[in-house]
Each structure stands twice: as C-alpha cells, then as structure tokens.
C-alpha cells in the first residue's frame, strides 16, 4: 500500500509539473503578444471575441504564406547565381596585336625533290599528280580511289601531306622552309622600319614556317593613334625565284598548294594564332588592308559563370575531376592562353584518339598520344571524322559534346579586309630592303625592264597592312547579379511588407525562443510571473495600493457629499430646529 501511494504521488507531481509547464507557455506567449511588434500577433492575443480572433488568425496565416512564397523566390533566385554584364566603351592607348604571316606554300618543291629527308613527301606529290592525270594505279594514301572526285582527292592529299611532314624533324625540315628573308621583303611600323628580331618563328603543321610580329613580351609596340599610317606594313613575296615557274617549267610550289599568297592571323599576345580556323588569306597582286577593332571580355567565375583561366593539366587531379571529367575539357594545349579555340581543338583531338587510335598532327598532341601515320587506314578514319551534318552519323558537335567554357579574360580582334590591286601600272614598287629582288627602278639589274619587275611583283608579291580602326574598344564585364547583400535587402523589404518585421522584431523573436528554450531546459522551474511575496514587498505595488485607497476614500467622501445635497428641504429645517 505504501509503495502504491508513493507511485501515485509521483504521477500527481508529474501531472502538476506538465500542467504548470503548459500554463507557463501560455503565459509566455501572452506576454510576448502584448509587447511584440510583429504584425497581427497583438491583434490575435487581444481579440475581444472568437470571431475577431479567427479573422486575425486568418490574416496572419495569409501574410505568413505570402512571405514564405516570396522567401522561396528569393532563395531560388540566389542559388540560380544570375550574372549581369556591364558594357563600357573606353578610349585609350592600345597594345598592337600580334600579326602572324605564313606562306601558303609550306615547303619549297625544289628542296622536296632533292632532299632525301622529304622522300615521303616527294612520293606523295608524284602520286597526287599521277592520280590527277589518271595514270596511277595504287598508292598507300588511297589517292587513286579518289581520282574521279577532285575535291575529295585534294582534301585527301592535303591530309596526307600533314602526316608525311609530321614524320620529318624540324631540323631536317629547315632547308625546305621559307625563311624570314624569303617571305618578308620590307617591314615598317608607323613609318619606322622593323626587323627580323621583332618576329617570332614557329612551325605550323599546315603552313610550314610562320612569323609572328610583336609576340615577344619584351617588345613594346603600341599605338596612340588609329589609321593605316600608324600600323604594320609588310611587303611579302611567296617565292625566292624570279617567277613562280622556274626555267624549264619546274615550279617551286607543291602540286597540292592551291593558292599563291600568305595566310595571316591577328590575335592577342599569348593566344594561339588559329591560322587554320581564323586566318585571313592575302593573295598575290593585291594590297590587303586589315583594320581591326578590339573587344575585351571579363567573365564571372563559378558559381556565377563557367569561365576558366586555363585548361587543367594531367597532374592537377582536382582540376581534372572538376573540369575535365565533368565537362570533358581537354588538356592538350598548355603553351598558349586558354581560349574556346584551344578547348575545341583539344576536344576534337580526344575524339580523334578515341575513334582512330591516333592523333591528328594538325592539332596539338597530348603527352601520351601517337600521331596518325600517312597510310590509307588512318586517312580514311580522319576523313570519316569530318562527317556529314545531314546524315545519321554527323561530325562531333563541339557545342554539345565538348562542353567548353569561355575564358575568364579574353581580348579579341575583329578584322575587316579591303583589297586593292598591287602594283599599279605606273608604280615602280619602292622598297628600302636590299634583300629579295629590290625596287622596280632602272638600276635594278634583276629585271630587264620596269614592266617585267612590275609583272613579277604582281605574280609573286603583295602588301599587307594591319592597323587599328579606332582607339575606342568595348569592355564587357560580367559580375555577380544577385549577392547576399541583395538577398538581405530584398528579404527585409518582403518581411516588412507582409509581416511588419524589422531588426527589433527579430530581436524580440530571438528573445522569445531563448526564454522558451530556457523554460524547457529548466523543466518549468524558471519564474515567468512574480509570486505573492514579491508582489507584497514591491514598493511599486504598495504605492499603487496607497493611491488606490486614497482614490477610494475620495470617492466615498464625494458620495457622502452628493447624498447630503439630495435630502429634502423640510428634513434639513427639522435638523436645524433640533440643533
């Protein structure tokens, strides 16, 4: 019996504790509603009737739902990481772009025929000529099979030439390459002469020896005035012979060379020239005036953008996983600044390696890639990769399959080309250079007459002028369009509109949560209202009681006086007589 009695007492104690805790929460909420600045809450707590309270509760639920909806929109907008593009038009002194020139005839045919290092190229040229004439039966490149399709034959021979030349070392190639003196007869920048030291030489797999003006970072070629007079002027010749055809009918041009002229590239310093995709053809017998305008892009990095500073290297495991594995970005080109062109070339090279088990020498090779061989099987595979966009097996879709991202900082030059005949019928072709064939003056012993000299320049020479069209350029800067600061500002506006919240309101609710938390942790032991002793000893309560008693006394006195004034006159007369 005693044990059961103790258990019952404990249950009663717990029940009383829970009851006190519940009433404590109610008291806390009542107190909070009386002094809270949160909209609608005081109206709900102080409603006079049930209908009024239900009305204000419905209003509170509505505004709370609207605020939740707006909050969802703000959060979704922030995590979409929008970006804004600011456009500025600037006008200032500019660094002159890099100008690259190459002879469209990559190798001197006279050297190819006589140099044993070029035996494979020589055999290819013979097979190509025989295939064109229809007199050749078999070859390792598959030219004969294409002899009836002129375009396919030409493309097959061009690809085979690149593969054959790739087997020759740069040292052995040197005799057949065009030197700077062979290609550039006269050079001037803004009217002042320039020299071979202002050019950087490199070997292109398609165009042979190329020369880039202003590529060296130690050079300081810049312009503060626009126009043709303040740019680069080059007089180029495409052959070292007195004519394109030597005496006896032998030509110094390869049979596969389609055009007589120069391939020209204009790009920013450090960028890949992109001659095969972005180059300009400058033909002999013309002056090619190339005016360029500069455009700069500064793009936002992740997560507000998808730009890259460089392609990941094979040892950068984090970069490879983040960019290469997820976005299929290549890592082939490390010598140049990262651009979309380098990314696309690397992606195409990866696709070539995957489908042909060899790499195309037209593009940079990876560290473990093996170049395709000049044989029919490899050439057939490379031919299929060119694809037909109209059938069910199209070429690689660079925009979809490569997922290349633009560079974070990019400077591009947009060229505009105009042509004029060179030389005119009466112009004697003045040149300050003593190399080459010289000017068409009477003292030039290389030609029998001025007209013969002019004819030679018309067949072999050209003028190339590259200049800035204007010193103004457009700068596109991509920045974060919606930051944490914007979220806070918009959140404050929506909270104030729908709930009437402010910083003070947030502090109030924080205090409410702290009080409720402390009340729960303490098990309801925290006082939420003063007890009787505290009320009795509070001098403020005593003062209020004294004031109340005094007011009650004054009310009583006024009541007695009012009642005496209301007595009848006869009664008052009797009281006076008695007195």
Features:
579 residues, alpha+beta, Acid-sensing ion channels like fold, Helix Hairpins, 4 domains, 5-stranded antiparallel β-sheet, 19 helices, disordered N terminus
What does this structure look like?
The chain is an alpha+beta fold and 579 residues long. The chain has 19 helices and 15 strands. The protein has helices spanning 2-35, 41-45, 50-79, 109-114, 119-133, 150-166, 170-173, 180-183, 275-278, 317-327, 340-356, 376-386, 398-402, 450-460, 484-498, 503-521, 532-537, 539-565, 569-578, and strands at 83-91, 94-95, 98-103, 184-189, 192-193, 199-204, 208-213, 222-223, 232-237, 261-267, 280-283, 286-298, 409-421, 461-468, 472-480. Strands 1, 4, 5, 9, 12, 13, 14 and 15 form an eight-stranded mixed sheet that branches. Strands 6-7-3-10-11 form a five-stranded antiparallel sheet, with no helix packed on it. Strand 4 and strand 5 form a beta hairpin. The longest helix is centred in the first third of the chain and has 34 residues, at 2-35. It is elongated and about 150 Å long. One of its GO terms (molecular function) is ligand-gated sodium channel activity. Keywords: Glycoprotein, Ion channel, Ion transport, Membrane, Sodium, Sodium channel, Sodium transport, Transmembrane, Transmembrane helix, Transport.
The percentage of residues in β strands lies in 15-25%
Poorly predicted runs of 5 or more residues: 1-22, 242-249, 313-331
Number of strands: 15
| First and last CA, distance | 79 Å
Give the number of helices. 19
| Structural domain tally | 4
- In CATH terms, the superfamily of the largest domain is Acid-sensing ion channels like domains
Radius of gyration: 46 Å
Family: Belongs to the amiloride-sensitive sodium channel (TC 1.A.6) family.
Keywords: Glycoprotein, Ion channel, Ion transport, Membrane, Sodium, Sodium channel, Sodium transport, Transmembrane, Transmembrane helix, Transport
Main location: membrane
Pfam family, one: ASC
């Amino acid at each position: 019996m005693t044990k059961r009695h103790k258990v019952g007492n404990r249950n009663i104690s717990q029940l009383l504790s829970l009851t006190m805790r519940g009433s404590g929460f109610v008291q806390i909420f009542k107190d909070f509603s009386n002094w809270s600045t949160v909209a609608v809450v005081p109206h709900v707590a102080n409603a006079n009737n049930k209908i009024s309270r239900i009305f204000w509760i419905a209003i509170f639920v509505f505004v709370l739902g609207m605020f939740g909806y707006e909050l969802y929109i703000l959060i979704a907008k922030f995590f979409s990481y929008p970006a804004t593009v600011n456009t500025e038009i600037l006008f200032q002194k500019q660094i002159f772009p890099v100008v690259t020139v190459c002879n469209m005839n990559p190798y001197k045919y006279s050297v190819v025929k006589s140099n044993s290092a070029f035996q494979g190229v020589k055999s290819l040229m013979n097979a190509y000529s025989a295939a064109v004439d229809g007199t050749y039966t078999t070859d390792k490149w598959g030219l004969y099979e294409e002899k009836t399709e002129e375009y396919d034959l030409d493309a097959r021979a061009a690809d085979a030439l690149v593969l054959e030349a790739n087997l020759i070392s740069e040292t052995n190639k040197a005799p057949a390459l065009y030197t700077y003196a062979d290609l550039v007869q006269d050079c001037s920048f803004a009217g002042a002469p320039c020299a071979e030291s202002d050019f950087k030489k490199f070997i292109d797999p398609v165009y042979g020896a190329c020369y880039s003006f202003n590529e060296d970072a130690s050079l300081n070629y810049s312009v503060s005035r626009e126009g043709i007079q303040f740019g680069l002027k080059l007089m180029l010749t495409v052959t070292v012979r007195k004519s394109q055809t030597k005496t006896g009918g032998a030509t110094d041009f390869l049979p596969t060379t389609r055009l007589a002229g120069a391939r020209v590239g204009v790009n920013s310093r450090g960028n890949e020239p992109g001659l095969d995709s972005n180059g300009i053809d400058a033909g002999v017998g013309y002056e090619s005036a190339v005016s360029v305008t500069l455009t700069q892009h500064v793009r936002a990095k992740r997560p507000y953008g998808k730009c890259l500073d460089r392609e990941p290297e094979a040892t950068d495991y984090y970069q490879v996983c983040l960019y290469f594995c997820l976005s299929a970005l290549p890592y082939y080109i490390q010598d140049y600044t990262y651009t979309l062109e380098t990314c696309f070339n690397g992606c195409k090279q990866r696709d070539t390696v995957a489908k042909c088990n060899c790499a195309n020498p037209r593009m940079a090779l990876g560290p473990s890639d093996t170049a395709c061989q000049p044989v029919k099987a490899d050439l057939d595979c490379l031919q299929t990769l060119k694809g037909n966009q109209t059938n069910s097996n199209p070429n690689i879709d660079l925009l979809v399959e490569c997922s290349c991202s633009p560079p974070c900082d990019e400077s591009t030059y947009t060229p505009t080309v105009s042509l004029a005949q060179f030389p005119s019928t009466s112009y004697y072709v003045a040149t300050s250079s003593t190399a080459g064939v010289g000017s068409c003056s009477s003292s030039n012993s290389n030609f029998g007459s001025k007209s013969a000299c002019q004819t030679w320049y018309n067949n072999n020479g050209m003028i190339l002028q590259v200049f800035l069209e204007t010193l103004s350029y457009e700068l596109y800067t991509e920045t974060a369009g919606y930051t944490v600061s914007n979220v806070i500002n918009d959140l404050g506006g929506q909270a104030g509109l729908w709930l009437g919240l402010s910083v003070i309101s947030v502090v109030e609710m924080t205090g409410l949560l702290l009080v409720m938390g402390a009340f729960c942790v303490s098990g309801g032991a925290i006082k939420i209202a003063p007890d009787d002793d505290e009320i009795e000893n509070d001098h403020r309560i005593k003062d209020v009681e004294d004031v109340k008693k005094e007011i009650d006394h004054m009310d009583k006195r006024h009541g007695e006086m009012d009642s005496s004034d209301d007595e009848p006159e006869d009664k008052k007369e009797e009281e006076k007589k008695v007195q």
